[in-house]
Specification:
426 residues; alpha+beta; Helix Hairpins; BirA Bifunctional Protein, domain 2; 14 helices; elongated
Length: 426
């Protein structure tokens, strides 16, 4: 969430951002009103505490003079003051809770380079990478390729769990493991520390990294323990330092997380989203950086470069787009997406999301670094390296040939015992 100082000292920055996003500023005004009420109650409480302290000194003096009547009178006044302080404390907590609940709904301040637009059709092209595949035959969709080669069992996945769950089989399962190993090694070679996070988080942690009121409907909850299955390893990796004061010498903290991810994926989707493109459980290798605020925009470009280099090494044609205002969520200040070309679907589709969240998550998590002037919020960033199910789709569609085979990217062949093609299961 945004620092409360921004509401008090630079509210016009927030108002301008809401105008850019074309959203109502009602919540901004209400946060400011509640903050003023909270500060007034705190002031009134401080005045009463001062009176109570003076009363305590008066009681001591009256006792010293054996003036019992005065002692009793002052004690009655002190008791009344104490009751008023208790009432104000309850009111202060109410204002504070309402204020910060609304603050959590107000989105991050967008970077000046974010394009203005109402939806994803207004995202702008940042760069193109690799050569667009020109096949001399009618490209098959990944669904057709899966069905012909028997690498996925969707029917039995649905039987034992539900729709959009699946059994991954044979060489495609081996290729999925190779992707995990290759991408995590790739990032460890760039000084990222490998982390396998918990697959569940408590509510407090999750509210620190995302807007649960907006995100909760796509997540799986675990009862009666009130945990949430993680939607991405970004969430536990970012939250792992919540409530901590980080020494500047530790920054930047560069992590590569590998985990299963769980999403309900509510809503209607197109034909190309069938198969294993949009599923409820998948593996993801994620980049996370926690850094000094002065360095976060450099790290944002570094995260993007890592993703570009990784996907270039996989031999996949893709484009990078700069996400516009209408397609931006609550948490990020700026976001790039990598979109792979799927010849079977005849469209570009998102495979990587790369975000700078500035101090938005850190404020919610109370995650700070030490400075000579006091403690200040760090900046947090994240980017997909590979979501393996979507990466498999891109490989199958771009590496298919007219014989119905799927070639294995060169950089993954050594992890597949030197195989050049995936073997079908019949």
């Amino acid at each position: 969430m945004l620092d409360i100082k921004l509401f008090r000292e630079n509210r016009n920055i927030i108002l301008a951002d809401h105008i850019k996003r074309k959203i109502s500023n009602n919540n901004i005004n209400e946060v400011i009103r509640l903050d003023e009420e909270w500060r007034k109650v705190r002031y009134d409480s401080d005045v009463l505490r001062k009176e109570r302290n003076e009363g305590a000194r008066g009681i001591a003096a009256a006792k010293k003079n054996n003036d019992l009547e005065k002692v009793n009178n002052i004690m009655e006044k002190v008791a009344i003051i104490g009751s008023k302080i208790d009432e104000l404390a309850i009111l202060a907590d109410k204002y504070l809770q309402e204020r910060d609940s609304l603050r959590m709904k107000i989105p991050n301040i967008l970077h000046e380079t974010v394009p203005v637009g109402e939806d994803d059709q207004k995202n702008t092209l940042h760069s193109l990478h690799g050569n667009k595949i020109k096949l001399d035959f009618d490209a098959k969709t990944h669904n057709e390729i899966l069905e012909e080669n028997g690498w996925v069992d969707l029917e039995r996945g649905a039987k034992v769990t539900g729709s959009r769950f699946y059994f991954l089989k044979g060489d495609l399962a081996r290729l999925e493991l190779a992707l995990q190993i290759y991408s995590s090694n790739f990032l460890m070679d760039r000084d990222y520390t490998l982390i396998q996070p918990p697959l569940m988080m408590n509510r407090e942690s999750y509210e620190g990294v995302t807007d649960l009121s907006d995100f909760e409907n796509v997540m799986y909850g675990i009862k009666p323990d009130e945990y949430y299955l993680i939607a991405t390893s970004e969430h536990p990796l970012t939250a792992m330092r919540m409530g901590e004061i980080i020494e500047p010498s530790e920054l930047p903290i560069k992590l590569v997380g590998i985990s299963q991810c769980f999403r309900r994926e509510v809503g209607a989707h197109g034909l190309s989203d069938k198969g294993i493109w949009r599923v409820h459980q998948f593996t993801k290798v994620e980049q996370v950086v926690i850094c000094h605020p002065d360095d976060s925009w450099k790290h944002h470009e570094d995260l993007l470069k890592n993703a570009i280099d990784l996907w270039t090494n996989l031999g996949i044609h893709f484009r990078v787009v700069n996400i516009c205002t209408g397609d931006m969520g609550t948490v990020a200040s700026k976001k790039y997406d990598l979109e792979a070309w799927l010849p079977g679907a005849n469209e570009y589709k998102e495979v990587v999301s790369c975000s700078n969240c500035t101090d938005y998550q850190a404020n919610r998590l109370k995650m700070r670094y030490r400075t000579p002037e006091g403690n200040s919020a760090v900046h947090t960033l994240n980017s997909t390296a590979v979501a393996t199910s979507r990466t498999l789709v891109a490989i199958m569609e771009q590496y298919q040939n007219e014989k119905g085979q799927v070639a294995i990217p060169d950089v993954l062949q050594s992890l597949m015992n030197g195989q050049k093609y995936l073997e079908p299961l019949k």
